[in-house]
Sequence to fold (217 residues):
Amino acid sequence: MSQYRSDPIDQSTSVDQPGVALNPLSLKRFIVTGGIGFSIASLCVFATVAIAQDWMYRHLGVTAAYIVWIVLFIVLGGRALNSLVVDTRRRSRFYVMFGVAFFAYGISWMAAYFSFKNAVGEWLGSFVGSVCMALVFAAWFGVLRSAPLFAALLFVANSIAYFLGSLLFYSFSHDVGLLVWGPFYGFFLGAGLGAVLYIAQPQRTGGSLSEHNVSDV
Fold:
């Protein structure tokens, strides 16, 4: 495997020109790949909510049902984002890191929401969950100074995904609303995660696709 270059990013490699495929290492590519990949994962998770929510609540309980959905997000979302880890040697470990990050986010959101069970709990959950997820990402990539920026990006992305998505949800019947909310939520949160992954790997976002083995989702 070739060594990563230490020279500054060649700006010409990250400019997306009309009619040209997105540069695999551009910010736009990370955002689009993260958004689309995570929207598919989220649609699958929200579909299980639409189909099996009542059954899961009766047989598993509310807390266990939420944990199952968190695990599904980890498995499917991790697969969607894995290709954005430029160093191919770290991709298998990325699943573990993402699992810790999203589990921390999910448990934090649950704790905040179930403490208040209203909009205050939802906003607090979005904030605390985003901070927890940002800290795990920053620590794993060794860029702790970027943790506040990661937290801000994830909080904005998650809040748009959740609160605007909930407005869409209430515009339809329950099951249809969930199937609309799912990909909307996933796209915006995935876009935020894609941006974080791009910023977290500054020394690895220059060069060509062949040099870094960045694969498509």
